[in-house]
Amino acid sequence: MPALEFDDAWASRLTGRYRAVFDSPSIEDGTAVFNAYTYMQGFKDMYKVQDADVNAVIVMRHMAIPMVFDDAIWAHYQLGKYTKIKEPGSENWATRNPFWRAAPDDKADADFTLDALQARGVVLLGCALATRGFAGILAGQTNDHADAVFDELRRHLIPGLQLQPSGIFAVMRAQEAGCHYMRST
């Protein structure tokens, strides 16, 4: 896999009048996803604005890093069991990333997903530092090499999500770009 390169061009896309960054250092049942949705909907309801007027950035870092991976990684490494996240409406550990996309038969929660928010213009960022640390944890469980697991994780990021040097960097960069801060745990 090529060397890790970072890009902060996402910050130049934050041109809306209203801007917020949702800092997610832990999963907390997807609080960051719910908060970003509620923030955008509140401004639309109150001021009758469009999605382009309301920018949101979600930064998933530290213990929330499993949220940035696709279903293949959730299944392969049993991340539902690792994170203690059950499949919605079930007693079974999630074998897919329930924060990325809703289950096909779950129309009620379809708007409350990273995929739906991204379609509305929400910027999704992940912490490379946490990803590297998580790769080490997974490598220890599987007897694989941490660098190989890290490369695998990078290949299985949610489409469109960008890794940043750290979640702290991403939160600070979003604030520099005019976002109000909200811790979402």
Poorly predicted ranges: none
* Proportion of strand residues: 5-15%
For the record, give the distance between the C-alpha atoms at the N and C termini, rounded to a whole number. 33 Å
Number of alpha- plus pi-helical segments:
7
Provide the residue-averaged pLDDT: 96
Summarize the structure.
By secondary structure, this protein is of the alpha/beta class. It is 37% helix and 14% strand.
For this entry, give a set of tags.
about 180 residues; alpha/beta; about 15% strand; globular
Textual characterization of the structure:
- The chain has 185 residues and is an alpha/beta fold.
- It has one domain (27-164, 172-183).
- The chain is 37% helix and 14% strand.
- It has a five-stranded parallel β-sheet, sandwiched between helices.
- It is globular, with a radius of gyration of 16 Å.
- It starts with 17 loop residues before the first strand and ends with a strand.
- The mean pLDDT is 96.
List the helices and strands and how they pair.
Blueprint: E1 18-24, H1 31-47, E2 54-60, H2 71-76, H3 79-83, H4 114-119, E3 123-127, H5 128-142, H6 146-155, E4 162-164, H7 167-176, E5 180-183
Parallel strand pairs: 1-2, 1-5, 2-3, 3-4
Helix pairs in contact: 5-6
